[in-house]
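New to this. Look over this protein:
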Amino acid sequence: MHGLTALDLARIQFAFTVSFHIIFPAITIGLASFLAFLEARWLMTKNRVYRTLFDFWVKIFALNFGMGVVSGLVMAYEFGTNWSFFSEFAGGVTGPLLTYEVLTAFFLEAGFLGVMLFGWNRVGPGLHFFSTLMVALGTMISATWILVSNSWMQTPTGYAIIDGKIVPTDWLAVIFNPSFPYRLAHMVVAAMLSTALFVAAAGAWQLLRGKNTLAVRKMFSMAMWMVLIVAPIQAVVGDAHGLNTLEHQPAKIAAMEGHWDTAKPGDKGGFPLIVFGIPDMEHEETRYAIEIPRLGSLILTHSLDGQIPGLKDFPKEDRPNSTILFFTFRAMVGLGVLMILYGMLGWLLRRKDAIYRAKSFLRMAVVMGPSGLVALLAGWMTTEIGRQPWVVYGLLRTRDAVSAHELGPVAISLLLFVVVYFLVFGVGIRYMLRLVNKGPAEGDHADPHADPLPVSIARTVPPLSGSHN
């Protein structure tokens, strides 16, 4: 297949399946917390709008949860079929970590998901809210264990190599490896931001269609507050993550920046930020570079005179592909900057009481809807391609981790994956967009402070003291 090897196809297959998969957990992490907030506000205020929004978004959450489970199972099998030597070498660490994820997060989610989805008329409001909280907690625990495993592959600690296999010697060191806190925070915040942008796009779409109801305005408003707050936080977390990566994976940073030459002793003035260019791996240069002097030093070292190693400091066989990383990293950062500006523009329009009427801004909100997920995918491509040529950084090369397959079987399985994924998940995504297009129920124009409880539940709820907000 045009010079591709079985290793190349195995990498493409895993990249394809994980790219499909990561979209669904990202949305479920954010939506689970959003649902918990909506139910909490509904219980506190008895405002029908919050229950209306819960009923609307819980359907989309359930659909994403199901697609996330199905797509995640496939990757677990790929460890055995396509990456058997990796499983043999590092399974003593990664196997238990993934097992912990199933035993804690998945069982917690599965145990309470049914109550959250179908228990409104079968359990009391307190137990139902507890179930929603447990589902939200489960999504966070799941993200934690997955990020522990992946972060350990980036910055392995707490192990010994015995008889050619990795054996854990300190589980606390394995779990709390150097990159884990930064990568967990980066992923969770990205999930929250992606969900906020998704919810905002859904609200903006309804407003553009003339469905200017309390529920639509409320979800659009909450989403825009979330974008305003979380987008700058993500920039701060990303900066801390970058500094950690520079410490433990300097070749990745050099490739992301298209930075080839390390400063000579005595050189001053720092190094520039290359805004645009085309890194050339063969000629070891970044062509057509547009640079801002010393800004690279300020961003990466927090000093105008700081220096970082260039790619030429690393053997050619140990260099990540700068041509790809340069652009995936800038796609992520560029979208992040746009999200910050988008949130600030929403705040300015809110102050002018025009956030629900400015059609150009609402159209922008619809366009920005998938931007969080695109940035998330670009970020994962950056971190995973930047780890190359290693699967376990510094310990196991990718070429030594792949199963001993011929080209044909891998090509056929990749083709089948592409066809089945686009068919199955394409239908699922299309149905989800139909739900979004339908919008929340329109019966929310009545008194927003009216008691929303069905008769069958209302009899079991004691009266709440205090004012309704």
